[in-house]
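Note to self: user wants both folds in one dump. Writing first protein now.
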Amino acid sequence: MKNRITEFKIVEKKYEAIRPYLNERGRRVWAAAEAESYGRGGISLISQATGLSNKTIHKGLSELKDPTPPTDERVRKIGGGRKKITQKNGKILSVLDGLVDPTARGDPESHLKWTSKSVRKLSTELSSKGFKVSFRTTATLLQELDYSLQSNKKTKDGSSHVDRDAQFQFINQSISELQNKKQPTVSVDTKKKENIGEYKNSGREYSKKGKPIEVDSHDFPDKKLGKVVPYGIYDIGKNKGWVSVGISSDTAEFAVNAIRTWWYKMGKTVYSDSTTDLLITADCGGSNGYRVKLWKLELQKLANETGLKIHVRHFPPGTSKWNKIEHRLFSYISKNWRGKPLISRETVVNLIGNTTTETGLTVMAVLDENEYEKGKVVTEEEIASLNIRGDAFHPEWNYTISPRIV
């Protein structure tokens, strides 16, 4: 027994030394020669010491007995080696394709339609259909089908209006004309409502290792602290932002009051006393939507109060992402408060007010503590009192509200 263990170690050491210099044929012929030299039990000994199968060593013995040496450089016969699974069963690719995208090519009733399609789940499903494959093979097959892991990409604007591009051009032209006359042009919108309290805020911020800011495990609104509604005004020509942080409802009255506050607190000091016009670009919906009667009535009040002729240009439906305030102001506010819980209204105001960029953006923010009534009705008489004129091109999107002299 002791000699057998010694022989095992000798063969193992010899094989480890010579293996890097041998090809497949060389390894089995060498193993066969060693097995033959040990006589009875030699095949078992060599197999255990080298890890080569008995079948491989027997094949080497057959080659040793063949007096004719190999005449070519090929190690295996043409067509030798394990066949690819796609060669053994050509249907597997189409079956896998149907599993990955059942609504387009396969069975729409497949349970995988409503589950995550990991390679392990796909491999299990293939096995149930008679294809015995590992998850690694499944991953290789997916590559052959030109599949890869993809995240969602926001590109769909919904149904595109036939005059969408023409409206974009009209908005740009209107902005250029007023900016050439040194008149203010602003982009307005409501940022999404934010819960106030110790809630998780998206993004990551530096802190000591193992000491993250601890927040509530749920996002149920705090009845006492409630939510805030930031309404922003972005001065396109001056690269300055204003945000009124509301604590009430996002109504047209709130939106116009934010514009009013911007004008008296910021806009009026930036522009000269000779300012006569104000251009506002806004989305088609929400509190500043083109169909909202209260929006127009409140703008009329603002025009009467300031003496400004207010030009409004709405972006077509489904194109709110083109509104400049989204990527010139709101995106930087979100970056500035990333990973920071909005624990109080003052926190929101301070974080917004301290938002800056390398391109010179500055932002002012105030808390609007007024209560705004939802569902306020505008009468026909009030609509008739509007001093409003629609443009020849899409008057529902483009209109001017002039001061009414009382």
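First done. Writing the second protein, which came from a different request thread.
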Amino acid sequence: MRQRFLKILLIRLRLIGDVVLTTPIVRALRRAYPEARLTYLVEPQAAPVVEVNPHLDAVIVAPLLAGFARWRADIALGLRLRRERYDMVIDFHGGPRSSWLTLAAGAPVRVGYAVVGRGWMYTQQVARPRGHRERHSVHNQWDLVAAVAPSAAPLTPAADPVEMPEQPAASVQVVARLQQLGFERDAEVIVVHVGAGNDFRRWPEESFAEVVARLSAARPNRRIILTTGAAQAERAETVRRLATALGVGCDALAVACDWSLAEIRSLLGRAALFVGGDSGPAHIAATTGVPMVVLYGPTTAAVWGPWRDPALVTEIVDNGPLPCRPCDQRTCEPGDFRCLRGIGPGAVVSAAERAMDRERSARTLNRTV
């Protein structure tokens, strides 16, 4: 007989993409425990991913502070969680902060990974083998749910894709922004995400610029938007400058570094193509039907690939098998980041055109059926 949980807390801190990849599990938990109150604890940067999730009852945002202010805020948050009297807490993260908050909540059932030095904080520990396994992150996180609901059916990307509902206000804002940029209603908008958190994820600006120039030149109605966070605005401006030098008109190219995450989601939902590396925006793109071209360097699509219906158009580009790939992104053994930087612009352009051709063919087929 399945145990009854009336109040469940889910914790996933840190990165946007990681939070996106938990959304299929949120939906599955709602199916498994329809009467439960589901709450999600997340940090500010990823809060927009889940704040309008239809399967959640509440979202708690853990502030990002430093020093003594961080400790004081976490103690206050821990006391708040304890007052809620959750029946179960599932920690999808396993880091020091999330482990402590799981323990502080005081739930009788606390589920997490068997992490050295912190596993004792959980009442249910799930093995997380060291080293790289060619097993998707969604499946790895599902192991935590299977520990307390072993009869629950395994997840598939077709039945339980990632999700981030579009916010109406963001949709209105995106339409206005596109009009301000002078993009025509029938423009084929291509979103190219040039952001990179570290050297391992940094595809050269020159390569991005060549892709932009070749895609722009192929069709006169194409309009390209370079996206990245505000902290990397200079990188996007460099790509724009290089692409302009290659002949891309100023009216066909724009930079979006100050758009909210909800606006990026809305933009991707109406785009003709997404191009970018393994990143948060790539996983947000997977919550829409946009054709995707995703570049993989130190990571692999088998573990971090877009988790969505296989019928949707997705093209994966990488540099093939390498003895040092995948890696932990701490030290590049060859020293030249060849896993990602060895990908040529031509391979990405070919994948992009192939993706858009596949999408056009699918639409034509649907109209004739």
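Dump finished. Worth passing along: Residues 7-146 form a domain with the Rossmann fold fold (CATH 3.40.50.2000).
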